[in-house]
Every structure is written in structure tokens, then in C-alpha cells.
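fyi for ur records
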Amino acid sequence: MDLTSKLAGQPGAEPVAGVPDAWHWSRMIFSFDAVVAGGRVLEMRVMGEYDPALARAVLELARDGADRLLDGERPLVVLDGLACPGWDFDVVAAVGPDVHEYHGQEDADLHKATVALFPGWRQEFSGSETLAEARHQFDRGLQPTKLRRDPVPFLRMRYRNERTGSHSEGPDRGLATLDVLRHELSLLPGSPGSLVEWENRLGAVFRAECGAELTVHGPDGSRPTTGDDLAALAERSVLRPEDAS
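which gave:
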């Protein structure tokens, strides 16, 4: 399959200036940019507001790092080093056809050859995402086709609150947001037998429990704590995991 011809044949496709084998086209409210590298199509889609300079920066970083994007071992791969004036994104994320549906309806072969790209922030990714987590993040969690969005720091958690009766599903930590973590920690004091456990993007695990007193367990051991201390620890551990203790 001639991937360059496939891209050039997209309705209204035009070459991206200065980027070999790269094409841009648009359809309704979507803008498309793609480059052929490593025998695959690396494609970025944007809904609504679009910046060709950012798209070009994404394509160039992905093309230069194609060997890492196409290693085939992880469902979600991240390249550091994205920089574009006017934007504070610092990484390019990529998912394969097991995660995205690009071209899936109209061209099955092109779908299988396409890696979907989107700009993001390092704090949004752990490098340990499962296939199910990658699909969740791409479909809903990170809004990959929107440029004007807020960062969503990577976080897994589980919880059980004996007073409210609320709890997470299953025994494992699942993807969550910092707002959910803040809320559940705020409900922990005064609820004996309850717990909140969370994991940051570096894999550090923290567990807060309510018994005779509040206790927090982390990489540096266990200690009594307070509600305010828990709130501060949660912020630090998720937003600045290198400094968390």
C-alpha cells in the first residue's frame, strides 16, 4: 500500500511545507495532518480551533521519534520535547489502531497503518497504561482532538467509605481525576474503616485510612495525619510526584 498516495488522495489534501511526505486536509470542523514515517501514517486530528505551527511541531517530533512510537510493546507511547510558541504542551502522545478508530469506517488497511497523535503534558502519562486505560484516555479522559483543554494529571485510585457507602469498583486501582481524589479524602475523617488509596504517574502508592486516627502510608512509611495534611499530600503527590513523601 502506497501510504503517501493515500494521504495525497484525501479530499483537499495539500503538502505540509517543509515536512516531506506530510499532508494537511480539512473536513467540516476537523483539521487533519499526517506524515509517513517508518512505514506507518502518523496522524493528528483537531476539532475546532487549529494551529498549523503546532500541528507541524507534532508531526516533526513524531517523525523524528518514529522508532520509539512504533516499538509495538505499549498501547500508549509518549515523546518528550514538544515545543511551540503560544502553547505549553510538552509531549506528543501516540496510540495505535487497537486504541483509535481513525479511517476504520472507510479504509480498513489505512486504519491498521495509522498511529494517532495528539499533544499533551508529561504529567498526564505514566508509561504503564494498559490497553483498556489507553482506550479510556483516548476516547474520553484526555480529549485528544481539542487543543484548548486543561491538563489531566495521571492518577489511579480506589476507595471505600463506610459512612457514605460509596466505593470504587473492584479490588484494583482505576483511572481517576484529582477532583475525585480530593473529594474522597475530604470524606475520610470521621469514617472508621474507610480508606483511600492512590497511585501517581511514577508508580508511588499512598493509602490513607481512618481508624482511631487518620493514618497515611506511603513510600517513606506510615504516620498519623490530618485532613489538611492529606489534602496537601494529594496535591503534591499527583502534581509534583518527584517531591512527594
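Residues 3-141 form one domain. thats all i got for now
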